[in-house]
């Protein structure tokens, strides 16, 4: 058994994995010239700064500096080891890997994370088998039938049933050689304090697999079919499952979300499944927690518009209010679906049918502002003057947050018409509220801007020698002859330590007989910082035909920089020299050194 994946196999997988296609599974990319751009998946942004080069098979973010090739993208985005990223791409490209164990057995092929994913896949198959084909699943089938789930919904979402036993899954996992303590950490099993024995965490529950964005089962939601509490039991957080990052059904909904540029966001997985049966197949859901900024960024990378379809009770309305406040700053256009009081999406579909859900709920979604106006109206008696004035002030405060003048004008006119008020008076009042809000937030906004500038300041104009080193390395990665000339003249005498390291690796890369290939070269770099810098250099726009004089100028700048530093030191020394004779001697040295500059 080999202890590593052969380099030629890794290279075959890299060449067979188009970086644009792989990244498109996670980021909505748009073609701009020879590059593709999108919103960076590694930091929050509203303006695309993430660039993917199909020619170089590299990606780079000009905002946060993330960069690399197809392997490093998966490693950074999903927290995979190198071996795991290779295996995932091999499976995608239908390339068979040899039976191997790497030297990273603890952290890669037998890592807890990979073991947990494998165990979840096995558990999902067990639960689905029990529901669909065994006598033990009878109660689950009865419940499913009562809820009106079709065979297609059961298969699409791999719904299952956990037997009413303490050891059904425990026994199977044990026989398959899984570490039961790792399974406890994965939230599949529990451990008794009394004797240290293990038991199934999910029992006598309808089971809903929860997937990551690539369709790997990483957790479960269990719905009781009795009066047992809690009604819904979700997996706890684990090394493979993070509620704040996961959206239920994303891998299933992504193709239609991308096609329509619209996602429908539900509160739970049952609503997603019910909506799918009604023909709404671009739905996703959070997992028992409020929407997070990270989830909002994931949605924005895939969709431009989000329709919030929450329960119609007070908690659902307030959750929609909060979610809109997270999605809009992330760059999403938000709408809110409205349902009759007391109904959730699943109830509505079973009561009124799929067609009405599509037309009267999803199709009749309100703008966020219209939703807020309806929300603010709740519980107020608008015949009462004091409550009416408070409502108008609340609405004006919300209108003041709108960015587009046409939107502000539209809702101000609506308010004026409804209450027979002067439009000019409303505009004046709205502007005063806006000015008060702006002054109140000015200090905190300045602090945030300072933090943003510290994190993502635009790159300052680089010194000539540093810019020369960057451009020279960019040419060297594309042309072995240029690399040979540089090695012969200045060797590794780059002034920036990271540039010196990249040059040394590049000389070694060509010395092994490799042809110019930035993606392959970067693949061999182990240091994350060097990977990012080398990727940025490889993505630079340069003149592909490097003229002789241009090449000589770059090397001259690099060679002259240490001399210029020494000259400055001598000038400083001369400035502080009290003895005129010694000062004159230093000046003569400075002049000679300047003459030696070429």
Characterize this entry briefly:
This protein is of the alpha+beta class and 598 residues long. It contains 26 helices and 16 strands.
Can you offer a commentary on this structure?
- The protein is of the alpha+beta class and 598 residues long.
- Helices cover 55% and strands 11% of the residues.
- The chain contains 26 helices and 16 strands.
- The strands form four sheets. The chain has a five-stranded antiparallel sheet with strand order 1-2-3-4-5, sandwiched between helices.
- Helix 14 packs across helix 15 (354-362).
- It is globular, with a radius of gyration of 31 Å.
Helix content: 40-55%
Given as residue ranges, the uncertain stretches (5+ residues, pLDDT < 50) are 101-109, 452-457
Q: State the total count of DSSP E strands.
A: 16
Main pleated-sheet profile = 5 strands, antiparallel
Blueprint of the fold:
Elements: H1 7-16, H2 19-24, E1 30-32, E2 35-38, E3 50-53, E4 58-61, E5 67-68, H3 70-78, H4 82-92, H5 112-133, H6 138-147, H7 151-156, E6 160-162, H8 168-175, H9 180-185, E7 189-191, E8 198-200, E9 205-211, E10 217-224, E11 232-234, H10 250-260, E12 262-266, H11 269-277, E13 283-285, H12 293-302, E14 305-309, H13 314-327, E15 333-336, H14 345-352, H15 354-362, E16 366-367, H16 368-377, H17 385-399, H18 405-419, H19 423-456, H20 464-478, H21 480-489, H22 497-511, H23 518-523, H24 528-538, H25 548-576, H26 580-596
Parallel strand pairs: 12-13, 12-14, 14-15
Antiparallel strand pairs: 1-2, 2-3, 3-4, 4-5, 6-9, 7-8, 9-10, 10-11, 15-16
């Amino acid at each position: 058994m080999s202890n590593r994946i052969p380099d030629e196999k890794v290279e075959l997988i890299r060449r067979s994995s188009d970086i644009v296609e792989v990244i498109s599974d996670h980021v909505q990319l748009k073609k701009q010239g020879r590059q593709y751009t999108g919103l960076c998946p590694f930091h929050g942004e509203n303006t695309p700064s993430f660039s993917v080069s199909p020619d170089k098979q590299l990606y780079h973010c000009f905002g946060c500096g993330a960069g690399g090739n197809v392997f490093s993208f998966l490693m950074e985005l999903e927290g995979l080891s190198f071996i795991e990223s290779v295996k995932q791409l091999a499976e995608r490209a239908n390339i068979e890997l040899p039976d191997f164990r790497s030297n990273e057995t603890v952290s890669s092929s037998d890592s807890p994370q990979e073991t947990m994913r494998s165990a979840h896949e096995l558990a999902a198959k067990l639960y689905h088998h029990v529901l669909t084909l065994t006598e033990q699943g009878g109660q689950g089938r009865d419940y499913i039938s009562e809820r009106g789930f079709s065979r297609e919904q059961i298969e699409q979402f791999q719904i299952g049933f956990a037997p009413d036993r303490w050891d059904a899954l425990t026994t199977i996992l044990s026989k398959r050689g899984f570490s039961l303590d790792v399974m406890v950490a994965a939230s599949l099993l529990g451990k008794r304090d009394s004797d240290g024995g293990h038991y199934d965490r999910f029992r006598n529950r309808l089971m809903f697999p929860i997937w990551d964005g690539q369709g790997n089962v990483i957790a479960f939601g269990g719905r009781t079919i009795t009066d047992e509490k809690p009604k819904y039991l979700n997996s706890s957080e684990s090394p493979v499952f993070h509620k704040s990052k996961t959206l239920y059904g994303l891998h299933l909904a992504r193709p239609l979300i991308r096609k329509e540029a619209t996602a429908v966001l539900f509160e739970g997985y049952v609503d997603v499944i019910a909506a799918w049966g009604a023909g709404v197949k671009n739905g996703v859901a959070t997992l028992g927690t409020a929407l997070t900024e990270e989830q909002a960024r994931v949605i924005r990378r895939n969709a431009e518009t989000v329709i919030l379809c929450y329960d119609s009770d007070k908690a659902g309305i307030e959750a929609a209010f909060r979610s809109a406040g997270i999605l809009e700053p992330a760059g999403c256009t938000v709408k809110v679906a409205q349902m009759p009081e007391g109904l959730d999406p699943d109830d509505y579909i079973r009561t009124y049918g799929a067609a009405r859900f599509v037309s009267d709920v999803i199709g009749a979604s309100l703008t966020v502002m219209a939703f807020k106006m309806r929300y603010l109206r709740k519980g107020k008696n608008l015949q009462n003057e004091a409550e009416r004035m408070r409502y108008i002030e609340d609405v004006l405060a919300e209108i003041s947050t709108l960015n587009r003048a046409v939107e502000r004008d539209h809702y101000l006119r609506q308010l004026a018409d409804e209450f027979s008020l002067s439009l000019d008076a409303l505009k004046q009042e709205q502007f005063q509220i806006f000015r008060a809000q702006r002054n109140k937030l000015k200090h905190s906004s300045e602090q945030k801007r300072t933090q943003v500038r510290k994190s993502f300041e635009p790159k300052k104009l680089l010194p000539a020698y540093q810019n020369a080193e960057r451009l020279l390395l960019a040419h060297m990665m594309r042309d072995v002859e240029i690399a040979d000339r540089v090695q012969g003249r200045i060797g590794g005498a780059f002034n920036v330590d990271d540039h010196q390291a990249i040059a040394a690796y590049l000389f070694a890369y060509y010395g092994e007989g490799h042809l110019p290939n930035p993606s392959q070269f970067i693949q061999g770099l182990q240091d994350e910082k060097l990977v990012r810098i080398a990727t940025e250099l490889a993505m630079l726009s340069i003149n592909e035909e490097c003229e002789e004089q241009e090449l000589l100028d770059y090397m001259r700048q690099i060679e002259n920089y240490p001399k210029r530093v020494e000259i400055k030191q001598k000038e400083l020394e001369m400035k502080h020299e009290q003895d005129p004779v010694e000062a004159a001697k230093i000046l003569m040295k400075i002049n000679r050194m300047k003459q030696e500059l070429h």
